[in-house]
Specification:
Blueprint (H helix, E strand, L loop, with lengths): L34 H12 L4 H4 L25 H4 L3 H36 L3 H29 L7 H11 L6 H24 L3 H29 L4 H21 L3 H6 L4 H10 L1 H10 L4 H6 L5 H10 L9 H50 L8 H4 L1
Length: 390
């Protein structure tokens, strides 16, 4: 089945083409680079994994609620629109909302794959090329994972959201080598990492929790990569260069803030898009969710040095300035430990199942041996009276 058969609404283009800009940069310096970046590169190599083997795809999932979330997380919950729907209508809407959200994750992962490949090509330093090469593989695996989840477990998908597409267009069409870092590693990856974290902690479904936790452990390294590379680069920016990048960040944050309104879903379901947009903006869950989305972006922007009064005012207007004091290293460590704990729990469960299976096999084998022994001690069939043998 083609992915286009899964789209709830037709995708505008079978292939979206952006003109390539910028330069491919070779370097002839192959000696030691920055220790932190090389350490990150080593971890990137060590942490590679296979989505086919690491994730338990046999887990059953309800397509209408693949994350097992409470109804209060639906943007329309508690409104007249929600109250006017029957249970089947609510389930169908829930499936479309989740399919739309995970579709944006999928499209974002493909974009991240392209951006990291672009970084390999354009960044001037070999240590950054090394790490970005590991990220290309990470993003390919993430796109594979989300595509399989949508196809096999949800059976529905949505084309790319216009706000996400606009930010990707701005990121990929810029010829400056640092802009893929800023657009992808800081904004798109940072926002995705926060969104994955909210859903990872809320979901009651083991398959979704596995996917989100394992992808997050990779994404945390990607954001760290952007921090290391840009912090050094932005220390020497001119005032005009700094203002230009601050504008890019603020514009991107506003696009991302609008990204989760889901207007394509409401239009496709025949609902009043304006009323749904108002309900989404007022939803207590969605307001908390959108605020949390910037918990990984604000501290990164501060850390890399784009922290003027104008930036602080911009984040304050978005209601997310309180995130400036978050410890990013502690969050990254927590993301990796969560994934490792899930691995340990799964391995322990598999070991327990192996022991139980061995015990059952041993019991069956012992029973078979006992039957054989009893059979050998019995007299021949002819020694029994006819009525017993009958």
């Amino acid at each position: 089945m083609s992915t286009h058969d899964l789209y709830a609404v037709p995708a505008d283009l079978a292939t979206w083409e952006l003109a390539a800009t910028g330069h491919a940069r070779f370097t002839w310096e192959y000696d030691a680079g920055r220790d932190r970046l090389l350490s990150l590169y080593q971890r990137g190599k060590d942490k590679q994994w296979d989505a086919t083997d690491r994730i338990d795809w046999d887990v059953e999932v309800d397509p209408a609620n693949p994350l097992g979330l409470p109804s209060g997380t639906n943007p329309l919950h508690g409104t007249d629109l929600w109250d006017g729907m029957d249970p089947d209508g609510r389930r169908d809407m829930g499936r479309h909302v989740m399919a739309w959200q995970f579709s944006q994750f999928l499209h974002g992962e493909q974009a991240a794959m392209l951006c990291s490949a672009r970084i390999v090509e354009s960044v001037p330093d070999l240590d950054a090329k090394f790490y970005a090469a590991t990220q290309v593989m990470d993003e390919a695996r993430h796109a594979e994972t989300y595509a399989r989840f949508l196809k096999d477990k949800v059976g529905l998908a949505y084309p790319i959201n216009p706000s996400l597409k606009s930010l990707l267009d701005n990121t990929l069409s810029d010829s400056r080598w640092d802009m893929p870092y800023l657009g992808m590693q800081v904004l798109i990856e940072g926002l995705a990492l926060a969104a994955f974290g909210v859903l990872r902690d809320l979901t009651s479904q083991p398959l979704a929790k596995q996917i989100l936790a394992y992808v997050m452990a990779d994404e945390a390294r990607h954001v760290a990569f952007g921090r290391i590379a840009l912090k050094e680069r932005y220390a020497d920016l001119s005032a005009a260069e700094r203002a230009d990048r601050e504008d890019f960040v603020l514009d991107g944050c506003h696009l991302m803030n609008e990204r989760f309104r889901g207007e394509e879903v409401w239009a496709n379901l025949g609902l009043d898009v304006s009323a749904c947009a108002v309900a989404t903006d007022r939803s207590p869950y969605m307001r908390a969710f959108r605020a949390q989305l910037f918990s990984r972006i604000v501290p990164v922007v501060k850390d890399i040095g784009l922290w003027s009064d104008r930036m602080r005012d911009g984040f304050d207007q978005l209601g997310v300035l309180a995130h400036e004091g978050i410890d990013l290293d502690a969050l990254m460590l927590q993301d990796e430990r969560t994934a490792e704990a899930m691995d340990a729990a799964r391995l322990a469960e598999q070991a327990e199942m192996t022991v139980r299976s061995a015990e059952v096999d041993a019991t069956i084998a012992a029973g078979s041996e006992a039957d054989v022994s009893r059979g050998a001690a019995l007299p021949p069939d002819a020694a029994y009276p006819q009525q017993v043998r009958s």
